[in-house]
Amino acid sequence: MKKIKSTGLFIIGGLLLGANVSAHAGLFSSPIDLSKPFICKDVSPTPMRITDKGLMMGGVLYPLYNPNAASIPTLTNTIFRSRDNLEEIDIVQYADDGKISVSYMKFRFDPDQFFDDAAIENNKIFEKGSFKAMNPGPKYFSKNQGCEQ
């Protein structure tokens, strides 16, 4: 009987640990209401907020650059840029679950002057993301902490 109890406790402990790790990896994250402040620890330690003037992050206003750069209805990709066009924040929200991914990029030169992905990638100084990238380049940084409200 004692062995069954200890085995049961071991299994429950393993399940709780697995749930805790999954929650920290963003697997159980909630939908984000973009009209309220949200935080993406990998991108900024301070809350972000979308206003009628643009995105506020770290006390800096990033004006709206493109309200929806996505070409598919399953997500919305909103792009904000600094006034000098050298910083870009992309916020992708998925229609099916309301979750978001945020990417913050800093460029050497205005990325609009480049037309192919390789040139844009070479122009990046760094990129921070709230998600695990599929094929991250050497300038991509993330702990896959996701975003929360």
Task: Please describe what this structure looks like.
This protein has 149 residues and is of the alpha+beta class. The protein is 20% helix and 30% strand. The protein contains 2 helices and 9 strands. Strands 4-5-6-7-8-9 form a 6-stranded mixed beta sheet. The chain has a 3-stranded antiparallel beta sheet with strand order 1-2-3, with no helix packed on it. A hairpin with an 8-residue loop joins strand 4 and strand 5 (75-81). It is globular, with a radius of gyration of 19 Å. Residues 4-28 have low confidence and may be disordered.
Give a quick set of tags describing it.
149 residues, 3-stranded antiparallel β-sheet, globular
Quick description:
By secondary structure, the chain is an alpha+beta fold.
What letter string, H or E per element, gives the SSE order? HEEEEEEEHEE
Question: Which structural class should the secondary elements be placed in?
Answer: alpha+beta
Cα separation of the termini = 45 Å
Order of strands in the sheet with most strands: 4-5-6-7-8-9
Question: Mean pLDDT score, rounded?
Answer: 84
Give the overall shape: globular
Low-confidence stretches: 4-28
